[in-house]
Amino acid sequence: MSRRPFYVDTDTASDDAVALVIALRHPDIDVVGIGVVAGNVPLDMAVQNALYTRELVGRLDVPVHVGEAAPLSIRLETAQNVHGGDGMGDIGLDLTGRSPDGDDAVGALLDASHQHSGELTLVTLGPLTNVARALERDPSLPERIPRTVIMGAVADHIGNVTPCAEFNMWADPHAVQAVLDSGLAVEFVGWDISRKHAVVPPALADELRAIGTPVADFCIGIQRVVEEFCATQTKLPGFDLPDPITMAYAIDPSIATETRRLHLAVETESELTRGMVVMDVLGFTGHEPNALVVTQADDAAFIAMLAPRSPTDHLRGRGSEQEPACAAGTLLLDHEDAFVRDRRCRRAPRPHDATPASAIARAGAPRGARRDGRVRGRIGRATATAARPPRPAPRRPSRR
Q: pLDDT tens, 122-172?
């Protein structure tokens, strides 16, 4: 089976980097380009962070393109208080001196849409500025992109930068409006999904880091400042990974256990509710749905896409003795033969009535798993009692 083409648009900071690792190392995905936009950090920092991540996983063949340095109509406000001054946890990484492959991320996205017309998946991890500019330049773009997966908004309207807005939507609400009005086939994975289904508590973070590879150390280490923010501001029992669970869903839609088609609109003017994506759950507006919204997800399948089965055994139960002695969740490993082992595992027969699930759920389903391969339970809650005492509050005001 040929690999699926993905184009990733990112404001590269700590969780974006993990999402890039997932995409760049997944055996079924061909990342045909990375566009960078200002958001979590200023544009030049985001570009260097993307280049560093690409180099770390040995994917210098994937082009990185420089995009928009500011939102469409408002001034740039970053989330460096959440991700660190350098966006990567301020852990001393060498994040300078690398050169991007192009200076027109908007043009690169349009080129990719022509080269892979009808099959390209666009995944956005930051503000939608680059996508909005691409739509300005070529309004026919939606005709060539069958699927656009967006990390943004909150289905329960609990925000992480204001009481009701998620950062990516708040950072450039006018771009969100342009995307919603464009006819793109959009799928939203909101911060509520990360908050409920993608929290990595300290015990699990320690086990993932103990895998002992440079990639594993990087993916956990760069969450240092985010972990502090989550402990003091969003009150989570660990750091959450909104961009990685979005990427995981883009790769394997069965990670979503519930979705809804809804009409979405964004507030662009109000100081109080700027960036709030209003979801018409009851159909009061009478408008046709314009988006698919993920409302529930499979925690274990997501975490398992990152790592071998062993780090989450204590959360999901012991694996069956009859299961293959391998796992598809080898994205934090450094061995080239990991994906060969992954492909062999995923070719193993499964019950005829099993719903397609993530490669990990198929390769390493725990005892007691449902027959469709999904595992119930919330990882963040399951280990909340093991959390370390919170660290001191960040010095900067809370914004994400």
A: 999 999 999 999 999 999 999 999 999 999 999 999 999 999 999 999 999
Give the whole-angstrom CA distance, residue 280 versus residue 282: 6
Q: Token digits for 57?
A: 């996983």
254 φ, ψ (degrees, to nearest 5): -70, -10
Do 211 and 307 form a contact (C-beta atoms < 8 A)? yes
pLDDT in tens, 274-330: 999 999 999 999 999 999 999 999 999 998 888 755 444 434 433 333 333 233 345
Q: Say how many Å lie between the first and final Cα of the chain, rounded.
A: 39
pTM of the model: 0.81
Helices 14-25 and 299-306, interaxial angle, to 10°? 70
Report CA dihedral (161, 167, 169, 173) to the nearest 10 degrees.
70
